[in-house]
Write a structure and sequence with these properties.
The protein is α/β, with parallel strands linked by helices. It has ten helices and 20 strands.
Length: 391
């Protein structure tokens, strides 16, 4: 490790969407920003995701963030000067049985009451007007036409490159190994090649957050289940909106390239990450691949006939209530934690990055962050919330 100590106003650890968005907000405000990541843009959760950009199905505490994020997504290409692949193509959440019909109907009622424009489609005929290739397994659905999807790697890369245009330093292939703290502040950050003396630190490392937090006496309570992701070769247009289902055991979207990207529900992960071509990878189980194909094909039959181009798995940083942590931990005034996005942090990334940046500057965010405080987990009896996934 170098004996030189580098200075920066803010050190962002993690080059996923939240870290990237925070880096841009700070760079736009004239701060000196350094982003450090062991791999590169969207190397883990932000790249593994389905990459939905949705408001529908959000927890009430997260819905204002999602609505604000969707307003930003419409202008992101112009702001970043680069393509994100964003399309406002809608989100269908499907019901495949009577119990799921009740779940979806309640979702529509609750979110309509919260002010979200969302429709109840009570028959397959209505659903097929939006997605004609769906099977008779689909009985009903919700539809939010202001939801959509984007290209995750292109989006995160665009945020980071725009931040670099404004002076941010991007340090990829550099792994943070330790945070040093004294007198209530992070005083130093050590990587495998350098040392930093930052004014503030934003920790946005997803499933790895506790590796750096725990030695400082803090921990985000995380389970780390895995989700299997399949990607087909390009095919004819089959699907315009993003598909989800009532119990979150599958999701699907068609990329601008024509490829179908689909995901499974969550299952236990043994915790092993391997490196393939210099990138972190989690190997999915054959059983999960088979089950994912079956579940997706049961509602979108054409999927079973496509060629398979890619298979991977991603791990979730799942909190007990499936809400993120956006907070400065007690006793560490210059450290901001942005983690625990529970499989649906991509779509709100532009806003959560902005919140993290505001906290790093000692400012009050525009959104209520009380539901996202780390201190809410002091009561270990908190019940686990259901997954929603895809964005």
């Amino acid at each position: 490790m170098s004996t030189d100590t580098r200075t920066t106003d803010t050190l962002v650890i993690g080059a996923g969407i939240t870290g990237a968005a925070a880096a841009l907000v700070l760079s736009e405000a004239g701060h000196r920003v350094t982003v450090v990541d062991a791999y590169g843009p969207a190397a883990m959760a932000s790249g593994w995701t389905l990459a939905g950009v949705r408001q529908s199905g959000r927890h009430p505490a997260e819905l204002p963030l999602a609505r604000a994020a969707v307003a930003q997504w419409a202008q992101l290409d112009e702001r970043l000067g680069r393509e994100t692949g964003y399309r406002r193509s809608g989100n269908l959440r499907l019901a495949r049985g009577e119990d799921e019909i009740a779940t979806i109907r309640a979702l529509v009622e609750n979110q309509s009451a919260a002010g979200l424009p969302i429709s109840w489609l009570g028959s397959l005929t209505e659903v097929r007007e939006i997605a004609p290739h769906l099977s008779e397994r689909v009985l009903a659905a919700s539809f939010c036409d202001s939801d959509g999807h984007a290209d995750p790697v292109a989006t995160v890369t665009a945020f980071l490159e725009r931040a670099r245009d404004l002076g941010a330093m991007l340090r990829f292939g550099e792994r943070v190994v330790r945070l040093r703290a004294n007198a209530g502040r992070v005083t130093g950050v050590e990587t495998d090649t350098a040392s930093y003396a930052p004014g503030t630190v934003i920790l946005a490392t997803g499933i790895l957050a506790n590796d750096l937090l725990a030695p400082l006496g803090h921990r985000v309570p995380l389970r780390r289940p895995m989700v299997t992701v399949l990607r087909s070769t390009p095919t004819e247009p089959l699907l315009t909106p993003v598909l989800g289902v009532a119990n979150a055991d599958m999701a699907a979207r068609q990329e601008l390239s024509g490829r179908l990207r689909v995901t499974s529900g969550a299952e236990d992960w043994p915790g092993e990450i391997v490196e393939e071509a210099g990138r972190p990878a989690i190997r999915p189980r054959l059983r999960a691949i088979r089950e994912t194909i079956e579940k997706v094909s049961s509602v979108l039959p054409a999927f079973a006939g496509l060629e398979l181009e890619g298979v991977w798995a991603g791990a979730l940083d799942l909190t007990p209530d499936a809400l993120p942590v956006l907070d400065r931990p007690d006793g560490l005034e210059n450290l901001v934690v942005a983690a625990g996005f529970s499989g649906h942090g991509f779509g709100i990334g532009p806003v959560t990055g902005e919140i993290a940046a505001r906290l790093a500057c000692g400012e009050t965010p525009d959104h209520d962050i009380a539901p996202f405080r780390l201190s809410r987990f002091r009561d270990d009896a908190r019940e686990s919330a259901p997954l929603t996934l895809h964005g």
